[in-house]
Structure formats: structure tokens, C-alpha cells
Design brief:
Length: 251
């Protein structure tokens, strides 16, 4: 590790990754934002899914100030976050064949909707199968993943494929295999993961594009306001009443 405090070096690494996304993923971000805007304009619903720490970026775009009210979280019991015991159960469930199909077949998702699947490695059975099944149901799929994993690891799905192979659009987070940005001679393992920072920023960039695209088409984007500003609750209630048939986190 070169000169600088660990904090400085981590900030540098995260900033460099964000700059790469800005430059290298600009076209994909624009396309993803447009796909979601098309879905909203046509009456479709929006969903996001992530397992483990990838779920944090999905949760960040659901029911939040400044976000699109129509973004719903697709949950799979036991794999969203570290709120299950043991926490390792979530990792095991990601490798179970058939789980994704069972979830989709009992979810509100239907043809004409859009699903964002976030998986850093994109190699486990759950995200691969989810993308396959969703597209078979007529759902548009945006994959958010690190393409490097497909080149440097092997798939854990029976097809031998990765999430990126089953998407209408792919956003490459550029995260290196192992998800650790720093090394130090006195520490035996690499450390300081940046995937949450980077993937969350990538998701917000896409949804900012969606909101602006809708506005350019003369459609008021259904945005939520903070409940901690005057009038915020009234605003949100109006939006939720207007789009209640496409919002599932209230039910």
C-alpha cells in the first residue's frame, strides 16, 4: 500500500471507481434509465433485488426521500441482509436451484414489469435463475454486477452462465474479484470493500436518469419527499394514492 492513511487510500479507490463508472458506463446508465422510464410510461411496475450485501443497494432505492415511489423490493426470505441466524444461511440459499423460480412465480411481477438484479459476482444460482425466469415471463431485466467475475471465476449455476448472460442490459460495477480495495503488509488479507458505495451510486445514477427522462416526456416522475420536511407526508400520500396499484411495500 502506498503513502497515505488507510482512510485516504480507501476514499481514493472509491472515487476512482466512481469516475470509471461515470466515464465507462455512461451509455449503459442512460439505457437503463430509459428502460425504466419506458416501463413506468407503459404502466409497468419496477422491482429491485439483491442478496447479501448486494441487497443494500436494492433497499436504498425503495421507499426513500428523493426516490421513485414505484420502485419495489423483491425479497427472498433468508437472503436479504444479515438479519437471519446464522448469517451464513443467506450465502447457502443463494446456491439453491429452484429458489428463484419459486419466488418469481409467487411474486407480483408480471409481463411488462422491470426487475433490477444486483449481484456482485453474478455467479450463484439465485441471480442467474432469477434473470432467466424473469425474462421468460416477459419481464425486462437489468443486471448490476462485476463483469470481472465472469472472466476470473466459474459459475455456480448448472448452465455454467452468469447473471450478465441473461439480462436485457448490464451495468458493470468494475469491482475487482474479492471486493477489497486495500492491502497492508501487516494484514494477511485484503480489506476495505467498496462495492456498496459504488453499486449504490450506480443505482441512484440510473434512477436520476429515469426521473429526468420521464420529465422530458411531460410525465411528472412519481418521486417521494422526505417525511422530515413540512408537507412531506401529504406529498407522499398523494403520490402513493395515485400510483397505489404499482406500489407493493404499503401492503
Amino acid at each position: 500500500m502506498s503513502d497515505g492513511t488507510p482512510a485516504d487510500l480507501f476514499f481514493d479507490a472509491a472515487i476512482n471507481l466512481l469516475q470509471r463508472l461515470r466515464e465507462e458506463e455512461a451509455e449503459a446508465i442512460e439505457s437503463a434509465g430509459t428502460l425504466l422510464a419506458d416501463t413506468v410510461e407503459r404502466g409497468g411496475r419496477l422491482f429491485a433485488f439483491g442478496a447479501g450485501h448486494s441487497s443494500l443497494a436494492a433497499q436504498d432505492v425503495v421507499y426513500r426521500a428523493g426516490g421513485l415511489a414505484l420502485m419495489n423490493l423483491l425479497t427472498v426470505p433468508g437472503v436479504v441482509g444479515v438479519d437471519v441466524t446464522p448469517a451464513t444461511l443467506g450465502s447457502a440459499l443463494e446456491r439453491v436451484d429452484g429458489l428463484a423460480s419459486a419466488v418469481l412465480d409467487t411474486s407480483p411481477l408480471r409481463s411488462g414489469d422491470a426487475l433490477v438484479i444486483i449481484s456482485l459476482s453474478g455467479r450463484n444460482a439465485l441471480p442467474v435463475e432469477m434473470a432467466q425466469r424473469a425474462r421468460a415471463l416477459g419481464i425486462k431485466v437489468i443486471g448490476v454486477t462485476s463483469v470481472a467475475y465472469a472472466a476470473q471465476t466459474t459459475s455456480r449455476h448448472s448452465s455454467g452462465t452468469f447473471l450478465k448472460d441473461h439480462c436485457d442490459l448490464v451495468l458493470d460495477s468494475k469491482i475487482a474479484v474479492g471486493d477489497a480495495e486495500l492491502t497492508l503488509d501487516t494484514i494477511p488479507a485484503p480489506f476495505a470493500p467498496a462495492s456498496t458505495v459504488v453499486t449504490t451510486a450506480l443505482m441512484q445514477a440510473v434512477l436520476a436518469t429515469t426521473a429526468a427522462t420521464l420529465a422530458d416526456r411531460g410525465i411528472e416522475p412519481p418521486l417521494l419527499r422526505s417525511g422530515n420536511v413540512d408537507g412531506g407526508h401529504d406529498w407522499n400520500n398523494r403520490v402513493m394514492d395515485e400510483y397505489g396499484d404499482r406500489i407493493f411495500y404499503r401492503r
